Amino acid sequence: MQIYLPIAEVSVNAFYLLGLGGIVGILSGLFGVGGGFLLTPLLFFIGIPPAVAVATGANQIVASSYSGVLAHLRRKTVDLRMGVVLQVGGVIGAALGILLFNLLKSLGQVDLLITLSYVVFLGIVGGLMFVESLVALRRSRKQGAAQRPLHRRQRNWVHTWPFKMRFRTSGLYISVIPPILVGMMVGVLAAIMGVGGGFIMVPAMIYILGMPTKVVVGTSLFQIILVAAFTTMLHAITNHTVDLPLALLLLVGGVFGAQIGSQLGTRLKAEQLRVLLAALVLLVCGKLALDLLLEPSELYSVAVSA
Which residues cross the membrane (predicted)? Predict the structure, then answer.
């Protein structure tokens, strides 16, 4: 069943989009990630313009993050005060990212920026994740299931900056400047790449801000709700690149896929899951890089500037 996507200006099989959303949902349930950094490149592959894929991907993140936050709120693993500070930085970063996005769009270079951003970030994150996963897998084979607990530093450079605030849920008394800077970085990524930024946010919250792991995921999801919603609104107002039929089909498929993935995830070890996810990230990165290097089928395209 073909469906016309009015904003993307392409016709795509509706069941194909449901299946794509389901695949990303399975990955989300299987690996415990939002899936935005994989969903957007996959939309590239089926012919969705990068600008539309980014804006629509940000739209889907709002719903998935909201459902995740509800579960964490019940477990009291969300630092609301830290989340608000991160949101302030995220909104500022998203606005800056939209300005850069619009500037490059007017120059006709936004598609190249999006693709290059994904190649760089997926390559770095996938490579580091793959190496760490192999080390963890080798260690688990030598030592069995027992793992050494990860100790975070109790005091680092963020404790020396001014404008300190107490974050009781995280047990921290640190400057608000580093969380705002981290939020700004994630906001820029959300605007340009259409991702939640969890693959950057979570390590930064643990190793830079020194937050306990148990509140990191819930606080990250809480932060991205406002940032992703704000990013979606700016894209819709300034670029008109949010395709609602596309978002709805992907969301429906993702809901069902996440349930399947969560069931499959219980059958595999954590180390095996991380290796598979890293390999998948590197595979997507390689495909994007290959598309940049290969000669396109159409050397010229006709576009009407607004």
Answer: 12-31, 37-63, 84-104, 116-137, 216-238, 244-261
- Domains of the chain, by residue range, sit at 2-145+156-293
Provide the β-strand partners of residue 11.
4
Kindly tell me the number of DSSP H helices and DSSP E strands found in the chain: 10, 4
Q: Is the CB of residue 244 less than 8 Å from the CB of residue 4?
A: no
How many other C-beta atoms lie within 10 A of the C-beta of residue 10? 16
Task: Give the chain's length.
Answer: 306
Which tokens is 302 given?
């006709």
**218 within 8 A of 73, measured Cβ to Cβ:** yes
Distance CA 60, CA 150 (A): 33
pLDDT at 277 over 60: yes
Q: Yes or no: say if 97 and 192 are a contact pair by the CB < 8 Å rule.
A: yes
The Cα–Cα gap between 220 and 294 comes to 37
Name the pTM for this structure.
0.69
- 8 A C-beta contact, residue 105 and residue 195: no
Identify the residue whose tokens are 């630092």. Answer: 79
Tens digits of residue pLDDT in 113-134: 777 877 887 788 778 777 877 7
For residue 176, give both structure tokens: 């608000």
The answer to whether the beta carbons of residues 192 and 109 sit under 8 Å apart is no
Measured CA to CA, the distance from residue 70 to residue 184 in angstroms comes to 24
Residue 148 has pLDDT above 60, yes or no: no
